[in-house]
Amino acid sequence: MKNPKTLTLIATVVLGISMVVGGQNHASASSIKVIGKNGLISSDVAPYLKKGTVLVPINIIRKLGLSNLNMSWDNTRKQVRISYRKVMITVKVNPKYGIIGDEGTPLAQPAQIKNGRVMVPVRFIGEALGEPVEWDAKTQTIIVGSSTVNSHAKSALTLERIRVLSLPRVSLKEQIHAGGLMTVVCYFPVGRADEYFVKEERRIDYYKVQQGRAVQIWAAKTTNDIVENKGLPFFPYKIVQEIGERPSVKGSFVYYKNFGAIAAVFYGIINDQGKAKQLGEADGNKGVIVDIPEEKNYMKH
To answer: What are the residue boundaries of the Copper amine oxidase-like N-terminal domain, all occurrences included (predicted)?
Structure first.
């Protein structure tokens, strides 16, 4: 007689194996992100979506943050074996089934070799290991792990902003000598992380993410005088000197204002008319970029 827990797990895997996103069967490989228990997982090979199933390189499974997970690759049999919490999983390249213990389970998409890398169906593996798996279609993010799903299911955008701020920066050849680090404000367009502004005491810089780097496009020296800046509705301070190409932006922005002296972060929204609304305060010792649940109300659908 089969173990009831095994039957339940197999049923869950069979029912939940496919992740159909808005009726679409394809997604840009580079747009899909994977979050494990330790946050966003990087890989030199991008995950991709095939007919509703996300496939990831097997090295991502190692990085999920699951303690005591062991994994081995048998190049002769072209199969990967994963053990975790007394569960043994075997996935072979091409056959449309996986093995949990000694039970075969159908796969919506088999493991594949792409560009010399073994790609495996992440939902099947995550759920077979007893971990919840959640797919966020809007941000093209798959989240694996019990504590991860609880704490990060709605923070894929936040994690991406944290990652973007840590990218290597490419500066303009000229520089403006102004600013200070006691108070730093980061501005992001609502719902996005591909460009951002950083304001220090009397300086503001604008960066765009390009090919894995934050490229400085524009910088300016400012005063504390309140004015209206054309093309920068969220920024009310007078610009007295600038270099590079000044951007022209529209829409609402979120801001994170970090007071280093008191280790506090104040965050909020600036609407497209330039009106700022503070929404909360966070412990600066735990990071500058935090979730802003109200942000979704300002996103255009």
So the answer is: 41-144
pLDDT at 181: 63
- The single residue listed with the structure tokens 């030199």 is 44
Could you tell me if 178 and 120 lie in one domain? Answer: no
Structure tokens that stand for 81 in this block = 């074996």
**Scanning the structure block, which residue is given the tokens 């992740």?**
19
Per-residue CA distances from 171 to 176, 207, 214, 220 (Å): 11, 9, 9, 13
11/71 same-domain check: yes
| 154 falls within a domain | no
pLDDT tens-digit profile of 1-18? 444 434 333 333 333 333
Say yes or no: 121 and 49 in one domain: yes
Residue 71 — pLDDT band, cuts 50, 70, 90?
very high
- Strands (DSSP E) contained in 171-274 are 183-189, 195-200, 203-210, 213-226, 237-244, 253-259, 264-270
CATH assignment of the domain containing 117: 3.30.457.10
268 shares a domain with 185 = yes
Does residue 179 form part of some domain? yes
Helices (H), the chain: 4-16, 58-62, 122-128, 146-152, 156-165
Is-contact 110 99, C-beta < 8 A? no
Q: Are residues 9 and 143 in the same domain?
A: yes
Q: State the average pLDDT over residues 160-176.
A: 91
State the pLDDT at residue 258. Answer: 92
CA distance 214 to 135: 28
What pLDDT was estimated at residue 13? 34
- Give the total number of structural domains in the chain: 2
The dihedral formed by the CA atoms of 173, 288, 136 and 54, expressed in degrees to the nearest 10: 60
* Strand 103-106 versus strand 97-100 pairing type: antiparallel
**What is the rounded distance in angstroms from the CA atom of residue 184 to the CA atom of residue 150?**
30
